[in-house]
Amino acid sequence: MRSKAWLFSAPPLLMLGMLSISVYNAPGTGDFGVWFEWINLMKSQGFYATLVQINDNYPPFSLMLLDAVLHLSQWTGLSIFFWLKTSLLVGLLSTTAVFYGWTRNRGLAIGLYLALLVNVGCGYLDVYWTVSLVAALWALHRNNFALAAALYTLSVMTKPQPILAAPFMALYALNICSWRDYATIDWKRVGKAAAGCLAVLGLFTLRLGWAAFAPLVNAMDTTGQHGYSNATPSGNSFNANWILTHALHVWNPAQFGPLDHGAASYIPSIGLAWQLPFKTAFAGLFLYVLYRFFREEKTMKSLLQYSALGALTCVMFNTGMHENHLYVVPLLTVGLAAIDDRFWGLNAFWLTASTLNLAIIYGIGGSGIGYSRVAGIDLALVFSLANISIYAVSLASMFAPQENPNRDHGLM
After folding, report:
1. CA 157 to chain centroid
2. What is the mean pLDDT of the chain?
3. Which domain, by its residues, includes 280?
């Protein structure tokens, strides 16, 4: 029976492997070229000098992995392109394998793989942090707070997006629904979580000092007031600020440029006055979601549900969000769907939405799809409206009565 099971599993696995190879030579987006610039800088002046010079919003572990790509190229004589693409494919396969090891859910694992495949084709570094984030959730579900905190911190030190889950993780560790429950806090598990986090942060501090954390500070400056290229209302992210982007082209074409055959284009920066209403909406909704989680029973299901909604709130309303920032949401909802199959539809939507955001703008490999409208309607505007609508439904779901609030099945 076991041999027959493998016989039926082999063709789909082979097909998925072939799909990963199909994006190997994809040119990627402009970001993919940036990784080569950074690698060349490290080749000429070393890792630390490059980290300080670029002063970007990518935490140092991403740069460390690119430095490893450089060394592998030098040691083996194979091209940087080969090792960079290989590292992305390894990240893709590792994320899928870790998720499957956690959930044993083949359907969800394939869905996650296909969503991340487009991200890899476009040449982003997101698969560098997805591995440790999924592993952190697995460890947390096993109540291994020290390991979970260490892996989660490593994920944040690779890319800033997972930090949106940090306040929810902290409340989960405290495990209280009211400040009057202070006496019931399990300080032992809080201490384990703090130790795991501080151990990773301590290693980065010893190695790099303040330079290890400057990229995180830069990433928080989504107003772009300090010149970290975050002043855009929406960096090709299908959200409320892309609707604003479309509207600005229509309302003020003299300043922002007209629509290009009915389609909006990226606006590099807008004034703070335009940003404040959206940032205020983000802050208010995020704090409300966090408060609702604080009042909820702290289960793995509620952690994933509310942290996904909190991250989604940021992506949908905060300015300075880019086209690949949505990927943190399906990384949380896919675990939620594995725990409670009622969330399969929600997860399928956000897996698809994150994939389409890249595919509509850049295609599956960075070259675009060759068109931007269907029946005269800008696709980016349509999908932005759809994303906001499903976000509203997701937010409203917090008010719906739970049939079984303790339901937590599917994972052992």
Report:
1. 13
2. 89
3. 16-399
